[in-house]
């Protein structure tokens, strides 16, 4: 049965178990939130998503407050906005949140929160700096921009289960560490980039994207990762015809935003001058460009010849890991039905 | 896995709980230093990631992930230490050893550190050397301590202070040499209550405790019997009882008085309570700095077991690693599960989902120690002490500027004046009193004049009874400096999880530092008040409130002192 909550006087209908933040977003209310991420669940740590709930004395974090039928919520009272402004101001007070040169400019949840709350400059400044870690092959970590929301840690431990990242130290000294506080490049991190995918600010960024494009120059194109048969959904960030970065598509099957190191960072090959653009046929010891018809005819002729001379079992088919299930199905069908052999295999079998 | 580590791991239902004890063991075996190898070893023994272990090791202050000297001199310079002159001890040691706090002498003999609250408030200044306390230190005694350590002699500790028990329920006669033994305890009627309780139905015990109206002595004052009755009925999961002995609120040193001198009282209280809530496994989570008291508890548990007193419950003493926030019940549960001591989001509450996701009750040492008396004398006997809604005996600790600091077991509802008189009266002219541990609002001398010490009266007076740790401040003390010490403590102890606490305490510390050092502006005072007003009630756990309330009170009540520091 549908339930209703009232947000700023508007009746919002929902089904099932939902939090106040989820319903607010579905109904077009902006509540700044920094530690909450749809696929990681509520963390209740940043305290910026607080709202007033009728009948409860203290402000409540909307990310962790379960909506109940008839609940009355206020997201824009002076009390709420003052608390939210204080939290964002506190985050801006510490570290180096200089948007002008930040890769996340225009795509940063902290910047969005500050913008919506009307914070032009932090009201008070206390700077404590940490070193930048650019030892990773593809990821730059900037502790000066980190807000300790813990999304990257949750993603590393709970989603991809690589268990590299965790919080080290305590209180104001809290930092995200790799293994036993090693530089990322010396740690067991495989650079899958899931941490970058979920980072709300510019604390984790793609090394290859630095200086390539501002967020508003980016055209986003959805595609399927060409690397393996899983078919991960990617969002290419393009400037002109050049890929600036690759993101996983959140909420899309099968990967829900995850990508592996190859899918996320291994895209340079498409610009390689050595990349083959036509089939090649070796003639007199030298490869020569050919058409697809020529190449396929040649292969078919050779197969027929081998079958005639040595029987179909002289031929074997190996499908590659890039093939989808459907491709692999067709491969075995071709070899069993058309060629007549059961010699089929897959490169990832061993 | 070597035998001693195996033994540690075997004490816990879940091996992850052994992370801290295993690291404590490895650190002790390696000159008080927890090396990277040791952390890797702990990770492989427990079966968790290296970063998890590193995160735990660096969360707690007692793990030394950098090498320290043979003797680690840790001087408590938190508020009670500050009032007792600990800064002079630090300065003296800096001069004597030729190093600054935070450094190690060239010969590797001494590391000097300023540390936060060691729970020796009436016996300050206190220096913790590795895991031993040296209390009531003067400069001359500090010299003697250093000489003794240098020459390899075993120095003596002087923990003397005033001890008065008007109620005779919680404190025993510590002047008796055998006061800790089970023989002494039983001679004075000990374990009779347990015997009686085991013949009673659990529900009847809960009813009696509810009727007695015993309110939690950890600070919040929540009715203990009611807490027990929140446990789910007909649940197949095991129930855990945790005795909260993580006494860390500055100004508080009451629980250690029971545990150190009257350990069987706590144990009997745990055994009765465990029977009442059907718990077969109980933990005493004791702050790691009280290592020798943990040893006393371990020995007393062994004695009680041998005497056949603990057939209904297995009690494990778990040593913390140096963290104030672990006094919060959900942080304590996290810590006991082998994690960083970050408080959990509530709900769920521990009664439904606590330790290992099972129903759990966390009670303070003093609360549990009241249970044997209630069983023996009934709720009516307990209610002879105190006022309605505020019954029972209460241990007050008095530190700071009084002539005879110490520990006082008086009925709830005793006037503050009477306790201060028992503590030898105020030294000098009274400026303010903090009555419930550092996290409550300071009272001016005038406000303190008529204060009654019980939960409700303190709330009415605009403060809180908290843990009953009373700190007396005379007019030699600058309140802005006191405020700076206060925020330094909370900023140091903040778990770092939520923004208002982590960053708010940092900004307030910076602004108070500026003010105290003549670099402040009038706007800074207003900013501090703006922050404290908004932080209250906004944080994930009560720690935000624990500093917002006292800082706000100090600034509001003594604003002219803050303004006077601003150069015009």
List the defining traits of the structure above.
heterodimer; A: 350 residues; alpha+beta; Ubiquitin-like (UB roll); N-terminal domain of TfIIb; 5-stranded mixed beta sheet; elongated; B: 568 residues; alpha/beta; Arc Repressor Mutant, subunit A; Glutaredoxin; 6-stranded mixed beta sheet; 4-stranded mixed beta sheet; 18 strands; 43% helix
Can you characterise this structure?
The complex is a heterodimer of chains A (350) and B (568). In chain A, strands 2-1-5-3-4 form a five-stranded mixed sheet, sandwiched between helices. Chain A is 24% helix and 20% strand. Chain A is elongated. Chain A folds into four domains: 127 residues, Ubiquitin-like (UB roll) (Roll), CATH 3.10.20; 82 residues, 2-Layer Sandwich (Alpha-Beta Plaits); 64 residues, Single Sheet (N-terminal domain of TfIIb); 61 residues, no CATH class. Chain A contains eight helices and 17 strands. By secondary structure, chain B is an alpha/beta fold. Chain B is 43% helix and 15% strand. Chain B has 24 helices and 18 strands. In chain B, the strands form five sheets. Chain B has a six-stranded mixed sheet, sandwiched between helices. In chain B, strands 2-1-3-4 form a four-stranded mixed sheet. Chain B is globular and about 70 Å long. Chains A and B meet through helix 2 and strand 8 of A and helix 3, helix 4, helix 20, helix 21 and helix 22 of B.
């Amino acid at each position: 049965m549908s339930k209703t909550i009232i947000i700023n006087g508007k009746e919002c209908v929902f089904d099932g178990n939902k939090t106040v933040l989820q319903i607010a977003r579905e109904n077009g209310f902006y509540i700044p939130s920094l530690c909450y991420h749809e696929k990681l669940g509520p963390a209740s740590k940043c305290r910026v998503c607080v709202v007033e709930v009728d009948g409860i004395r203290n402000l409540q974090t909307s990310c962790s407050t379960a909506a109940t039928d008839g609940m009355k919520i206020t997201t824009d009272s002076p009390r709420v906005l003052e608390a939210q402004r204080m939290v964002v101001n506190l985050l801006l007070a510490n570290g180096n949140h200089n948007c002008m040169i930040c890769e996340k400019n225009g795509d940063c949840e902290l910047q969005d929160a500050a913008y919506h709350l009307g914070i032009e400059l932090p009201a008070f400044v206390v700077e404590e700096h940490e070193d930048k870690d650019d030892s990773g092959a593809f990821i730059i970590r900037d502790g000066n921009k980190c807000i300790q929301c813990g999304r990257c840690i949750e993603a590393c431990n709970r989603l991809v289960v690589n268990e590299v990242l965790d919080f080290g130290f305590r209180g104001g000294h809290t930092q995200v560490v790799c293994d036993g506080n090693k530089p990322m490049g010396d740690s067991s991190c495989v650079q899958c980039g899931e941490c970058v995918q979920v980072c709300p600010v510019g604390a984790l960024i793609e090394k290859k994207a630095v200086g390539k494009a501002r967020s508003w120059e980016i055209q986003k194109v959805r595609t399927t990762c060409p690397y393996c048969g899983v078919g991960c959904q990617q969002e290419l960030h393009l400037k002109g015809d050049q890929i600036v970065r690759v993101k996983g598509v959140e909420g899309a099957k099968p990967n829900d935003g995850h990508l592996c190191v190859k899918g996320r960072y291994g895209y340079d090959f498409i610009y390689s001058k050595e990349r083959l653009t036509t089939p090649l046929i070796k003639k007199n010891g030298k490869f020569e460009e050919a058409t697809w018809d020529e190449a396929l005819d040649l292969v078919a002729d050779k197969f027929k010849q081998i079958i005639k001379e040595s029987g179909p079992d002289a031929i074997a088919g190996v499908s590659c890991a890039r093939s989808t299930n459907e491709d692999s199905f067709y491969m075995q069908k071709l070899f069993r039905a058309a060629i007549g052999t059961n010699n089929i295999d897959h490169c990832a079998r061993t | 896995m070597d035998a001693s580590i195996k033994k540690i791991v075997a004490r816990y239902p879940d091996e992850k709980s052994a992370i801290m004890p295993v690291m404590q063991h490895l650190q002790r075996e390696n000159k008080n230093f927890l090396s990277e190898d040791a952390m890797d070893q702990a990770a492989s023994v427990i079966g968790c990631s290296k970063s998890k272990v590193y995160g735990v090791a660096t969360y707690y202050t007692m793990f030394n992930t950098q090498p320290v000297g043979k003797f680690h001199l840790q001087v408590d310079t938190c508020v009670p230490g500050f009032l007792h002159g600990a800064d002079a001890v630090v300065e003296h040691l800096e001069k004597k050893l030729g190093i600054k706090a935070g450094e190690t002498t060239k010969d590797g003999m001494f590391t000097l550190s300023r540390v936060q609250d060691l729970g020796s408030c009436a016996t300050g200044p206190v220096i913790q050397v590795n895991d031993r306390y040296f209390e009531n230190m003067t400069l001359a005694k500090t010299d003697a301590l250093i000489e003794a350590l240098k020459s390899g002699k075993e120095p003596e500790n002087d923990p003397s202070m005033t001890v008065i028990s008007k109620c005779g329920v919680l404190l025993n006669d510590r002047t008796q040499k055998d006061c800790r033994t089970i023989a002494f305890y039983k001679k004075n009627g000990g374990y009779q209550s347990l015997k009686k309780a085991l013949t009673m139905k659990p529900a009847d015990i809960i009813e009696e405790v509810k009727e007695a109206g015993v309110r939690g002595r950890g600070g919040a004052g929540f009715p203990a019997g009611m807490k027990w009755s929140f446990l789910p009925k007909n649940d197949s999961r095991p129930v855990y009882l945790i005795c909260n002995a993580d006494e860390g609120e500055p100004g508080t040193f009451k629980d250690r008085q029971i545990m150190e001198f009257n350990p069987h009282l706590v144990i009997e209280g745990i055994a009765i309570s465990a029977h009442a809530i059907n718990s077969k496994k109980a933990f005493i989570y004791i702050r790691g700095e009280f290592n020798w008291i943990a040893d006393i508890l371990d020995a007393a548990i062994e004695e009680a077991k041998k005497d056949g007193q603990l057939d209904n419950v297995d009690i494990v003493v778990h040593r913390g690693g140096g963290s104030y926030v672990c006094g919060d019940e959900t942080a304590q549960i996290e810590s006991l599960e082998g994690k960083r001591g970050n408080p959990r989001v509530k709900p769920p509450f521990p009664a439904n989902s606590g330790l290992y996701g099972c129903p759990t009750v966390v009670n303070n040492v003093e609360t549990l120690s009241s249970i044997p008396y209630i069983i023996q004398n009934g709720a009516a006997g307990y209610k002879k002490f105190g006022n309605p809604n505020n019954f029972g005996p209460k241990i007050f600790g008095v530190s700071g500027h009084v002539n005879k600091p110490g520990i006082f077991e008086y009925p709830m509802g005793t006037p503050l004046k009477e306790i201060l008189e028992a503590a030898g009266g105020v030294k000098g002219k009274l400026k303010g009193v903090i009555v419930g541990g550092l996290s409550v609002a300071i009272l001016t001398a005038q406000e303190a004049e008529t204060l009654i010490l019980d939960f409700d009266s303190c709330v009415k007076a605009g403060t809180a009874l908290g843990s009953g740790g009373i700190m007396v401040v005379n007019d030699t003390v600058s309140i802005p400096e006191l405020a700076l010490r206060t925020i330094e403590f909370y900023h140091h102890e903040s778990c770092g999880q939520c923004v208002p606490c982590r960053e708010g305490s940092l900004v307030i510390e910076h602004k108070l530092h500026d003010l105290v050092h003549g670099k402040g502006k009038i706007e800074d005072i207003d900013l501090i008040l703006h922050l404290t007003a908004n932080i209250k009630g906004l944080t994930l756990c009560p720690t935000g409130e624990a500093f917002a309330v006292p800082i706000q009170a100090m600034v509001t009540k003594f604003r002219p002192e803050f303004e006077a520091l601003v150069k015009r």
